Amino acid sequence: MALCDTAAERAVLAGICSYEDEAYLEISDLISESSFTVDSNAVVYKCIKHIYEKNDSLKIDIPSIYSAASELGLSSLITSKEEAQHLKAIIDFPVSKENIRKFAIKIKKLEIARALHKELELTQEKILDVKGSEPISSIIGLAEETVLNFTNSLNDTDNNPVLLAKNIDDYLQNLIDNPIDQVGIPTGFPVYDHSIGGGLRKGTVNVIAARPKTGKTLLVDNMGYYIAKNGVPVLNMDTEMSQEDHVNRIIAMSTETDMKDIETGKFNLSDDKKSKVKKAVEEFKSLPIYYKSIAGKPFDEQLSIMKRWVMKNVGLNDDGSAKECVIFYDYLKLMDTQGMSQDLKEYQVLGFMMTQLHNFSVQFQVPIVAFVQLNRDGITKESTDTASGSDRIIWLCSNFTIFKRKSDEEMAEDGPSNGNRKLVPIISRHGGGLDDNDYINCYMKGWCAKIVEAKTKLELANKNSPKEGFIVDGNNETEDEEIPFV
Fold it and tell me: Engineered SS bond to 183: which of 16, 198, 299, 375, CB 3.0-4.6 Å?
């Protein structure tokens, strides 16, 4: 195999022997004995490593290397005449101290290339098992999965526990030097953001549960639009709605134009509406909002789509985490009977899906907003047991919030201008949530697909004042009969 450089390997070993601990500490975080392709070089490095682990004050020379080899049971590998000559050649090899780390980086890269070559060989064997009935994306996913898993393995090589306070001074100084308004990504719903701990945090799954036809897809479009306007890429993984549905809703929402006028093209009959729509569309084109219909797709294929988007459209940081982005998953349900059997029930499959979403979120440090259906108990109850599917959904989410219609009594108590929907944060790992019996009022203007956050129930009760900015006019009814909601 050509993926080696014996001269660079010898230069690294010679540099350690010449400059001792100063050189060893410079490269010990990069390489190990597996980085060397010549067996003799690997044995010598293992001996040097043993010397420093035992007593870092020892001088690196031929006797100390022989002694270390004896302690490691490797004497037979370096005591032959040829190996003795090889060791002496290493000791005498001239190398500049400034070049040692450069050589170490080179042999580390070659080690990575060899490991990737081996993984791809294994992937080739999997590809040979393809029957031809699989989706094209699943076939391509075999290679993508290998590369992505390999990439993440490079960033997860240290399994040693560390002191919890390690680097705490640097951490605090970074917070002082780089203050932020909130930890997570804002959704455009500030009270909701505060209740869950400061927006959508990296590596979290944020679950919102709703009954059918409540408006959860509108909530996706409203949050996604706001997030994308702040320059953060958004992926909408949708199980039901078409691309045109989302386009119509975002245009209607951003211009506050009647959905019917957008869908039928009648906005063109009004110069004012036509101008607003044209301006909104130009802005829309610049927003990093991505859409993918995942209806009927196996869950492993859905994960491949998400990974591909992160790699291609978002990009990774040096540590393997994704750059800032948000994924909306609308909504968590069983697509088909694949994976179900007499021994594996639907709630178990949904639990496994949630586990994989959580693992993906943690692996790439991507915040995911996952929607689930409320069961029939959710019509009257507001607790964690109203989530359809599995307790694992609750176990693995960072926060759980219910989005539902307000009752007639609540509408009367809060006032009709203070919303027709409510967000009820039930649990939050990072935030304080709300007080018992409190909720966030939301005003859903169904005619233009727009949802606006209002004051909480207790704020209204304490101040006895309506939400500023809520104006009920001829079009802004609190009812939503104009369009069907998902």
Answer: 198
Q: Which of 75-84, 113-122, 219-228, 337-346 has the least mean pLDDT?
A: 337-346
DSSP 257: -
| Residue at token pair 């701990």 | 197
| Fold of domain 190-463 | Rossmann fold (3.40.50)
Residue 365 C-beta-side C-alpha neighbours within 13 Å: 15
120, 146 contact by CB (below 8 A): yes
Residue with tokens 């609540």: 410
CA-nearest of 18, 93, 10, 27 to 59 is 18
User: Which segments of the chain belong to CATH 1.10.860.10?
Assistant: 6-104
C-alpha angle 129-135-141 in degrees, rounded to nearest 5: 70
* Inter-axis angle of helices 81-92 and 62-71, nearest 10: 130
The CATH code that applies to domain 6-104 is 1.10.860.10
Q: For residue 143, give every residue at least 6 positions away whose Cβ sits within 8 Å of its Cβ, in sequence order, or none.
A: 120, 123, 127
- 206/396 Cα distance (integer angstroms): 9
DSSP string, 112-150: HHHHHHHHHHHHHHHHTT--S-S-HHHHHHHHHHHHHHH
Token pair in block for residue 330 = 């609308």
405-428 residue pLDDT tens: 999 999 999 988 899 999 999 999
> What integer pLDDT is reported at residue 1 of this predicted model?
57
pTM above 0.85, yes or no: no
- Segment 246-269 shows an average pLDDT of 96
User: Looking at residues 219-242, what average pLDDT do you find?
Assistant: 96
Question: Per 3-state DSSP, what percentage of the chain is helix, strand, and coil (rounded to 5)?
Answer: 50, 15, 35
Average pLDDT (101-118) is: 92
Quote the pLDDT of residue 5: 93
Is it true that the peptide bond before 331 is cis, omega within 30 degrees of 0?
Answer: yes
Residue ranges of the chain that CATH labels 3.40.50.300: 190-463
Looking from the CA of 111 toward its CB, the CA atoms found within 13 Å total 19
Helix (H) or strand (E) holding 399: strand 399-405
